[in-house]
Amino acid sequence: MRSIGALILACLAISAPIPAYAQANKLVALLQQAGATQCQESSLVCLTLQVPRDHFANAPGETIEVTFAISLAIEASQGILFYAVGGPGYSGTATADGLLAAFNETLRGRLDIVFFELRGTGATNALDCPSAMAALLQADMSPAAPDAAIAAAQSFVAGCTSEASNADLIPFLDTEQAVRDLEAFRQAIGSPRVYLYGESYGTQFMQAYATDFPSAVRGLILDGTIDLNLAYEDFHLSYIGAAERVLERVFDYCRNELPECARDFEGDPSEVYDALAARVAAGPITLDYPMPDGTTAPRQLTSSLLAMSTFSSLYEPAWRANFLRALAAASRGNLLPILRNGYALYGLDSATLALADAPGYIASAYYPVTCGDYAEGTGEPAERAAAIMAEIPDLATIAPRFTELLYNERLVCAFWPHRGPETRPAPFAGGSYPTLILGADGDPITPITQGYAVLDNVENGSLVVMEGGPHVIFGRGIACPDAIVSTLLLTGEAPAQKIQVCTQELVEAYEPLTITDPAAATPREIVAGVEAELWQLPEFYNWYGPEQLRIGCEYGGTIVGTLGLETTTFELADCALWPNLTLTGAIRDADERTEFTLTVSGAHEGEIQSGFDWDTRAVSLTGTWDGQPVETPRPLP
C-alpha cells in the first residue's frame, strides 16, 4: 500500500508568494500592469479580466469576469503556452496545478504557461445545476423506451435552466465567445505570438482560436483531436463506432494477453457483457448497495448506467483494467463492482447519489458550450427530438452496445434554449506555424480517425499516434510523445517525420480477483486481498481528504479512513469484502511502514498481524489461524 497522507496534505497546502526568480521575467511587469496578483491557493499568478458578455454585440455593454492563471518560467522564458483543458466543463485555473505536475522541469522552467476559465465554469459565471444533472445521470434512457428518453432530456433542460443562477448567460457561453476572452488576455499582455495546446474539447477551442487569430500562433498542438468539419450526428457516429471497436479489442486483450484476466471470467468476456446488457435492457436490476454506515439501500443497475460507464471506462488503460475486473466479478454473480464503478465514472456520490465534489469541474457546463457550438436539427424542440429517435433503429446496428450514446446528448441539445450554427466550419487548414496532432488508436471519444482527417487538411502538419493509448496522450510520463512535444515547444521546430507511432499497453495494471474461494483462503492472501480490494474501491482512489473516508463493504460492515499528518489509518468494522469472511481491525499506513492488525471470522477464525517495510520491501506475518500459529512463510526452492 502506498502512503497517501503526505500527498493529499501537500495538495491542500497554500503556496508561498511569487518567487523572486519570476521578477526577472518580463511578463511579470505586463501582468502587474494589467492587475495580476498571487493566486490564493497556488504558486501561480492570477489575472481577472472584465470582458464583454457578448463579444459580437454591436455595442458591447455588460461584462463578465474571466480569470487566467499563469505559471511563470523559472529561467529566461522561451515562449508563452496557452493551455486549453477538455470537457467542456473543466476550469483551467482550478485544475492548473494538477496539470502542471505532468510537465517536465525543463518545460516548466523555460515556458510561461497560461490556463484560463472557460465560460460557464468560473467562480462568478458558472452554469451549475447539480440537482438536475444528478437526475439526468440516473435517468434510464433506454432505446426500448424512446418517449421516456425524450422526457428525461426535456426535464433536465427545464430543471437546469431553472436551477442555475447564471441561466441568463446561456446564449453567451459558446466557444467563439470564449476564444475572444483568451484573445483579450493576449492583448492585455502585449499581444505576443504564443504556442497553443488543446486537449479533447480544447482541440476544438484551439482550432477556432488559430482560425480566428492566425497571426498570434507560433505553434499548435492538438491532443485527442476533434474534426470540426463533422456535423453533430456524424461526430457521434464517428466516436461511437470507434468505441465499439475499442471495447472488442479490450475483450480480446483479456482473452489473449492477460491470462489472469481470462482466468477470472466464468465465460467469454464478450458473451458475459452482452448477456448482462440484455438483462438490463429488459429492465433495471435492483441490488442491495452497501452504505457507509453498514446498512444497505436498494439501487438499480440500468441499461444507461451500464452503457455509459462502460464507454467511460475505455478512456484509460488502467480504467479498462478496472472495468474488466468488475465484469469478471459480474460473471461470478457479483454486480456491485459494476455499479460502484458506474457511480464513480458518472461523478455521483455513491452514498447520496448527488453529484460528487469534483474540484474544477462543472458537469452541467458541458451543455451550453456543446449545444451552443452545434445545431441539432430543425423545427420545434419536440420535432427535433422525435426526428433523432426515429433515426436510432437504423443507426443502432453501427453501435449495438452503445446505442444510447447516439441520442442522449443530442436530445438535450434538441431542447436546449440556445443552439449553434447549422453549418459546420471548413476543414481546419492550419497555417505557416507547425501543427502537431496527437492521438491514440484506443481513444473512444476523439478517435484517431478524426486526427487523420485534420492531418490530411492542415498545412505544416505532423502526427504522433499511440497504439493502445488513452484519450489524450501528452503528460503521461511516456517519453514518446512527451519528448516530441517538448522539442516543438522549446525549439519551435516541427518533427522531421510527418507521422510517428508510439506504443502503450491497451490494458494496464489488471488486479486479479482476490479470495474467490473463502474456504481455501490463507492469512497471507487475506492481507494481500484487503490491500488489493481497498485500492480497487472508487471511493478510496477518489478520496481527496481531509474529511474521513467512509465505505460500505461489499458483503456488510464498513471501512473508515482517517488522514493524518504522518499516518493514514483505516478502521475495518465487521467488514466482509468476500462472502463468509468478516474482518475487524486496522491498517496503519505511513511513509516507512504499513501495518495490518486484523481479526478474522466466518469461514476461518484468526488474528493476523502483518507489516511491510517500504525501505527494505520486507514482509512479516504473525498471529493465529484456525487455532494454529501463523508465521512468516519460509519460501522453498
What is the element layout, followed by pairings?
Elements: H1 5-12, H2 26-34, E1 37-38, E2 45-52, E3 63-71, E4 80-84, H3 96-100, H4 105-110, E5 112-116, H5 130-138, H6 146-163, H7 175-188, E6 194-199, H8 201-212, E7 217-223, H9 232-257, H10 259-264, H11 269-281, E8 285-290, E9 296-301, H12 303-313, H13 317-331, H14 336-346, H15 366-373, H16 381-395, H17 408-415, E10 430-440, H18 448-457, E11 459-467, H19 479-491, E12 499-503, H20 523-536, H21 538-541, E13 549-552, E14 558-562, E15 567-578, E16 581-590, E17 593-602, E18 606-613, E19 619-625, E20 628-630
Description:
Among the domains are: 17-126 and 169-230 and 424-503, Rossmann fold, CATH 3.40.50; 130-163 and 377-415, no CATH class; 518-630, no CATH class. Residues 1-24 have low confidence and may be disordered. The two termini are 27 Å apart. 37% of the residues lie in helices and 22% in strands. It is α/β, with parallel strands linked by helices. It has a 10-stranded mixed sheet with strand order 1-2-3-5-4-6-7-10-11-12, sandwiched between helices. An 8-stranded antiparallel sheet has the order 13-14-15-16-17-18-19-20, with helices on one face. It has 21 helices and 20 strands. Helix 5 packs antiparallel against helix 6 (146-163), helix 13 packs antiparallel against helix 14 and helix 15 (366-373) crosses helix 17 (408-415). A hairpin with a 3-residue loop joins strand 17 and strand 18 (606-613).
